User: Which sequence fits this backbone?
């Protein structure tokens, strides 16, 4: 009997202890709100379907150097699972109000547990990052926790979708886990990523830089290309995650979800017949083509602010999820450079990993010339795009709208790299180089002797275009499947997608290839 009383008192004491901690948690939450940030649990609630979150390891506490004086339930990270649009996902949300969101032994183990569950169940993993890096007081223990997380990120890569939301600082080693994941979404003026912070930079180099200038959302979505998307608020960011997942399968063994978009697959748009300018040197907006072709004109663009000469994004055609890769003639004439090659290669590899067909709209005058590009490694980086496309085994469909010159013709979805269907508009031009450049080489003597070099150059260029550049030459060789009226682009792509539904393509047995990194 006495034993039962002691047990009851012990339980009551522990319950009181927990109540006290929860009260302190409310105080810490107010502190977070004063910074304009949501709490860790609030973030999870916004992201997941209502009442679907099931928390794990809520009572885990730090047992390291901070335990005696500052024991906090959950140890700076909320973990668990729930649903988004009724589909299972696993989540972790770092709590900046607890030890500054730093990663110690318990914190790392909690994240690793939820990562293991996500991989075992074949479900997406979403992390909300808001922490100060490794917990200094725990020394190597914190660093080993990051190592365990990185290892799991790599093992899960290409198996389950991994998404990182940067909603606070993500410094030092903490920046590498998001970098391994498939998508990074950042909240503007709130999330930052950098390996070395402003204070260290000032000490080592004398350079003065703010955290936003160093690793804010603008930097990483426009300059570095580290992050794919940015949003003005946390609410918009989590809606972005929900929208993104609607195009993705749960794992690499599933197909993306089919959604009937109620958009007629036979729909044609006569405006496409006149969208290409008669002057081949004039630009047009490729978004104008895309919105008339994809379901309901809805494109979920990936990296819209980075390497804008190449458009990448997710869309649907006839209800089927697709990955879109398209030139943007309005920016750098759609030429491929280092940044665009890296952007396109990574996106194509993602689509291939998760069974998302690739649709290319090509209008490429070639690779960007110049010493900066050559010194920067355009050969190596340009080869990444080539490698990624050739390696992809998903259905691959290309539509040539206008130019496809030189090596860029090969790289941008040619039959020679494994395109399953290749269509060209009558305005298409396929050649080793543009007519103007070609006549400068093959008709140099005639140009030198001409009374009006400029007029003669224009005449010879037009002759070259008429005789050698038109798509019927490639069609005659079988490299172009059909010359189609632009208005019929949507139904032709959808029919090709349906034909390729059961496509099976297997790479030669190997451990892995050696992509030029």
Assistant:
């Amino acid at each position: 009997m006495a034993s039962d009383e002691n047990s009851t008192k012990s339980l009551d004491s522990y319950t009181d202890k927990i109540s006290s901690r929860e009260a302190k948690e409310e105080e810490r939450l107010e502190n977070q709100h004063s910074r304009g940030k949501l709490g860790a649990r609030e973030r999870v609630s916004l992201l997941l379907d209502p009442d679907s979150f099931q928390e794990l390891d809520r009572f885990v506490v730090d047992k390291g150097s901070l335990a005696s004086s500052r024991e906090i339930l959950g140890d700076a990270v909320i973990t668990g699972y729930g649903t988004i649009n009724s589909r299972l996902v696993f989540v972790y949300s770092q709590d900046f109000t607890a030890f500054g969101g730093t990663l110690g032994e318990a914190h790392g183990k909690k994240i690793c547990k939820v990562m293991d569950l996500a991989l075992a169940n074949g479900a997406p993993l979403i992390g909300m990052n808001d922490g100060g890096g490794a917990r200094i007081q725990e020394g190597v223990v914190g660093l080993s926790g990051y190592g365990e997380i990185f290892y799991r990120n790599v093992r899960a890569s290409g198996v389950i979708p991994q998404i990182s939301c940067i909603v606070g600082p993500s410094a030092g080693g903490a920046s590498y886990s998001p970098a391994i994941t498939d998508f990074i979404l950042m909240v503007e003026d709130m999330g930052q990523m950098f390996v070395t912070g402003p204070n260290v930079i000032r000490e080592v180099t004398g350079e003065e830089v703010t955290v936003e200038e160093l690793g804010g959302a603008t930097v990483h979505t426009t300059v570095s290309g580290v992050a794919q998307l940015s949003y003005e608020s946390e609410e918009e960011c989590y809606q972005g995650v929900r929208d993104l997942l609607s195009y993705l399968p749960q794992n690499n063994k599933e197909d993306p979800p089919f959604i009937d978009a109620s958009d007629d697959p036979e729909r044609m748009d006569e405006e496409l017949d006149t969208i290409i300018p008669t002057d081949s040197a004039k630009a047009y907006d490729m978004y104008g083509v895309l919105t008339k072709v994809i379901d309901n004109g809805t494109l979920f663009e990936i990296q819209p602010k980075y390497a804008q000469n190449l458009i990448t994004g997710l869309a649907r055609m006839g209800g089927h999820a697709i990955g879109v890769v398209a030139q943007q003639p309005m920016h750098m004439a759609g030429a491929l450079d280092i940044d665009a090659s890296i952007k396109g290669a990574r996106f194509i590899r993602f689509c291939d990993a998760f069974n998302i067909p690739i649709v290319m709209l090509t209008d490429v005058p070639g690779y960007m010339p110049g010493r900066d590009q050559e010194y920067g490694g355009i050969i190596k980086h340009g080869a990444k795009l080539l490698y990624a496309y050739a390696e992809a085994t998903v259905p691959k469909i290309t539509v040539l709208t206008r130019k496809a010159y030189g090596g860029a013709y090969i790289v941008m979805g040619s039959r020679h790299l494994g395109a399953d269907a290749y269509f060209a508009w009558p305005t298409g031009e396929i050649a080793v180089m543009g007519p103007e450049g070609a006549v400068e080489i093959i008709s140099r003597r005639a140009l030198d002797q001409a009374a009006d070099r400029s007029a003669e150059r224009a005449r010879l260029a037009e002759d070259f275009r008429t005789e050698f550049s038109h798509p019927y030459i490639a069609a005659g060789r079988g490299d172009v499947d059909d010359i189609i009226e632009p208005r019929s682009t949507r139904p032709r792509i959808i029919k090709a997608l349906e034909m390729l539904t059961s496509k099976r393509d297997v790479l030669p047995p190997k451990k892995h290839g050696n992509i030029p990194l």
Notes: The radius of gyration is 27 Å.
